[in-house]
Specification:
About 0% of the residues lie in helices and about 55% in strands. The chain is built from 1 helix and 27 strands. A hairpin with a 7-residue loop joins strand 23 and strand 24.
């Protein structure tokens, strides 16, 4: 009785036949003449391993083929390397060794096949790809010279201040970016020195940064960018603020917050939140919160607070303070209408430059209109403010 193994993607099926012809389309193949074994005996074919695929970058034009084979049913007795596809130019030291050398390779993609044979007459194959690249050097581009604006004493970080994404490589093989400062005011920080883009944390002054890009073949290129940084340092800048929001308002009558201590403390709360922009500072989130006595006809206010914070990620600006001259609870009870008040700044990002910066700052003007029918309120905040 004759038997042979059919390979079906590494799953082997024992077939009892007098004669059989077959083919397989899997990467690894097992072939050979049928052999006779006693009933119940399992014959396992060998396994070929051609090694990992490779990438070579000219002028490197040689490499080692490190193939191997294993067999649990016999002994590996033969190896053979053959080129399946690729450029004509190449030389192999000895195609009948598992470990041998390739030389004389040229630009292109080669496919080689390793065939291993065991002492039972069975064989298996495996393939690998060798890609040979004719490398050309990259071109670094650190971006145009620029002037950057710091708006806040609190946060001196400017995101994406360094931009090397304009760097190019003919083979698109840039593998590394490196930013260093050539000169500049002490205290700077390159936030991501090995990224194409990086933020900078720095003080006002003049800086020069150098970008080095390296490709897969180790070729590199350098470029520099000059950056002039202006803005707050020890003396923060003053800005003419003009913010307007139009938003629904919320009135909570006899409100008891679960966070209050004692928990039986009740009050009326009116609050408004919205967004507004003020060039060149960008967009701000604005919140106004009034806390009043919960008695129905009482006009007593515990306090009204305003918070203003930037939403843009390039700088963190904020103002905190109190609102005077406006009683939203009474205004709602009386049917709405126009109002005027004053926003006194008590804290803000400029205090990181000067702790007393807001001591002599005049209050900002607050005007607006509350519409009870639509539950909408318009608020405008104007005046000079430090950041």
């Amino acid at each position: 009785m004759k038997i042979q193994f059919l390979s079906s993607c590494n799953k082997y099926i024992l077939v009892i036949v007098l004669s059989f012809f077959g083919a397989t389309a899997c990467k690894k193949e097992t072939t050979g003449s049928p052999v006779t074994t006693p009933p119940g005996t399992t014959v396992k074919p060998p396994v070929a391993n051609a090694g990992a695929d490779q990438i070579l970058i000219l002028p490197t034009d040689s490499t080692i083929l490190g193939g191997s084979g294993t067999s649990t049913g016999g002994i590996i007795t033969g190896y053979h390397w053959a080129k399946l596809s690729g450029p004509l130019a190449f030389s192999i030291t000895d195609p009948n060794l598992g470990i041998t050398k390739l030389t004389g390779l040229v630009e292109g993609t080669y496919e080689f096949e390793l065939k291993v044979t065991d002492n039972k007459g069975f064989s298996a194959t495996d393939k690998l790809i060798i890609m040979v690249i004719n490398n050309h050097g990259p071109v670094a581009h650190a971006g145009p010279d620029k002037t950057l604006q710091l708006f806040s004493c609190y946060d001196r970080t400017i995101l994406d201040a360094l931009d090397g994404t304009g760097s190019t490589d003919p083979e698109n093989n840039i593998v590394r970016y490196d930013w260093v400062a050539l000169y500049g005011t002490p205290g700077y920080n390159i936030n991501n020195p090995h990224s194409a883009r990086s933020g900078l944390t720095l003080y006002p002054g003049n800086y020069s940064f150098e970008l080095t890009v390296t490709d897969l073949g180790g070729l590199l290129s350098k470029d520099t960018v000059l950056i002039n940084v202006i803005g707050p340092t020890g003396s923060p800048a003053i800005y003419n603020l003009d913010l307007t929001i139009s938003s629904p308002y919320t009135f909570l009558n006899n409100y008891n917050s679960p966070w209050d201590d004692p928990p039986d403390y009740f009050y009326d709360e009116t609050y408004v939140v919205g967004k507004a922009s003020s060039p060149p500072l960008g967009e701000f989130d604005i919140g106004i919160f009034e806390y009043a006595d919960s008695a129905e006809l009482s006009n007593m206010l515990y306090g009204t607070y305003i918070t203003i914070r930037t939403t843009n990620v390039n700088s963190y600006l904020y103002l905190d303070g109190t609102l005077s001259g406006v009683n939203f609870k009474k205004l709602i009870r009386d049917g709405g209408g126009p109002f005027t008040g004053a926003f006194t700044v008590t804290w803000g990002s400029a205090k990181y430059c000067d702790p007393n910066i807001y001591a002599n700052l005049p209050p900002l003007a607050v005007t607006g209109n509350l519409n009870v029918a639509t539950h909408m309120i318009t608020i405008r905040i104007r005046g000079n403010a430090y950041f």
